[in-house]
């Protein structure tokens, strides 16, 4: 298949009609039809069933779509790069982060990085780890940071910083001398703030409690660690959160203690295995690592 064939094929697979593909590609409908016919002629088989003006992919088309997806992404990337070079556009770095790190670590990292890269454009988005993997694989981001290693064959996970899960409670809950000592599940009391059932770190906390023969009852369940921290700072109860969320809390409004037995937490830099980082992106990753480690030191 030629590159033009692949481009037209992918457009039809995405929109399902000749007219829609023509609009996406900014070419005429007869041109799309001609390219598709030539593509099927070269392959020696029809790729779509025609039913009342709509195209339905055959099984062979689905298999072909999977195999040509990366090539199509690369083609789009080359065209975007060529357009940027032609217009003398500044470099754009696309960073994706989980919400926790975007709030607790990235403001400091990006401020420091910006001093050396004042003219580089940075696009920051937040997603959960599953969405981040898809974003990297589709070439829609250059790098990402997450508290999870997705263990995906197409994703490289590089550790940047590490800490342990931390118990946070409203200020005045413990004597100041006790804050440096770990707290077990037996020390949880009062109102407890938990995490959603599908949250990986929340599952680790519940498993650790049950291993200590404690079955916690969470009065409030939240979707993000930042909400849990805000509730604790407002005096709504205790929570077990990641160390970055705990360290970035207000010392006037909450206290923190390490969870026991310790649950190690890593901050990972995630990149697509086939996409090496530019110099600016690599420096941004380094700044994120430094900011993350500094965040944990401030929380000690």
UniProtKB/TrEMBL annotation:
It comes from the Bacteria. Pfam families: HTH_1 (PF00126), LysR_substrate (PF03466). Residues 1-58 form the HTH lysR-type domain. Signal peptide: none annotated. Keywords: DNA-binding, Transcription, Transcription regulation. Belongs to the LysR transcriptional regulatory family. This is LysR substrate-binding domain-containing protein. It comes from Janthinobacterium kumbetense.
